[in-house]
Here is the input.
Amino acid sequence: MKVFFTTFGCKVNQYETQEMSELLSSSGYTIMNNHKEADIIVINSCTVTAEGVRKVRQTIRKLKKENPSSIMVLTGCASQAEPHIIKDLPEIDILMGNRNDTDIVNVISNYLATHTFLNAHQKHLKGDKFSGTGITKFDGHTRAFLKIQDGCDRYCSYCLIPYARGFSRSKSLELIDKELNALNNNGYKEIVFVGINLSDYGKNTPYSLPDALELAEKYNNIERIRLGSLEPDHLTKEMIQRLAKITKLCPQFHISLQSGSNSVLKKMNRHYTAEDYEELTINLRKAFQNATITTDILTGFPTETEEEFLETVEFAKKIKFEKAHIFPYSVREGTKAAILPQLPKSVKEERAKILTLVTNESRKEYLKKQIGKTVNVLFETDKQDYSEGYTENYTPVRVYDTIHRAGQILKITITDSTDEFCIGN
Here is the structure.
């Protein structure tokens, strides 16, 4: 049978789609790039924002309309945290969640025996161990994502992820090493270590994040390793010192800020202050040459005053983020922030626009400073008249010609920049 996947959300979801894809392939299923030709459509969903869930619903209805005979499987974070989502989605034939998505072969087999709606959803339990079968490749990518951690114990007041992902748990070093070996043998030059709360890796074990990263040092094909999103309070000086000794680690750190106002951070149940965050950026930039700091920031958190918002604006100007993702706050039912007095949508969106302009200026300034440098670029895509890839610190670089470079790491001299990327030869 033919299977088509569509994936929403983060790098962890993308990894899990690859994991499910390999499981189905090894059981005789054929993975398709066209949903109209598929017998089974798997939707791997996201629940971070209300808009994300709306897009999941919209996609389900669209795909079913365009392929009415297909078997529709819903899995991922939206179905895990909000299984009631299917009440107005009669298109769904199989309901799963991320707790048991690696059981997808058996679940589909059970459905095929009866062709009646199958609820295979399982709740996360406190004693859950890290589960998964691992991957050997990453279809359609020059970089491979490697999930080493799952779950989150933080319970930020605006976030549903702890309910969607369960408690923090870590993959064993032995299984990480096995996956690294397979990815190395398949020629991947860059590995991105990912997790739901990646910097919490190793909690309640004798090991920590650097232990996992150090495993990649011995593999010849793997030239770079990169980190996914990190929580600032986990990155101690001691951890930074260890990370700085890992020769293949790329000096790009995506560290969620969410707000530059201490009063808002407290209401968010974040575990650091703006001063802590600033000190962390200073320590990272000292420890890593050409380090870049990227971030996520929410605007219009419930009760956020104009003064508190302006504190975030000034903080962003001070840190000079190399890139920032700005999101208007999204109400997620079931969180503590959802019951607080809410700001008008127009206020949240206007503040997002203002902050986007501020952080875009620091990005443009950073890109201009790259002109004249010679950098190593891992090329990921080839277009008709240019190739595009990323430096170690995740600066996007384009080379305009018709030569194919995807999958190669090449030395490039930066000659110019735009508002969004650098241009090189």
The CA atoms of residues 42 and 73 lie 5 Å apart. The two ends are 46 Å apart (CA to CA). DSSP finds twelve helices and 18 strands in the chain. The chain has a mean pLDDT of 96.
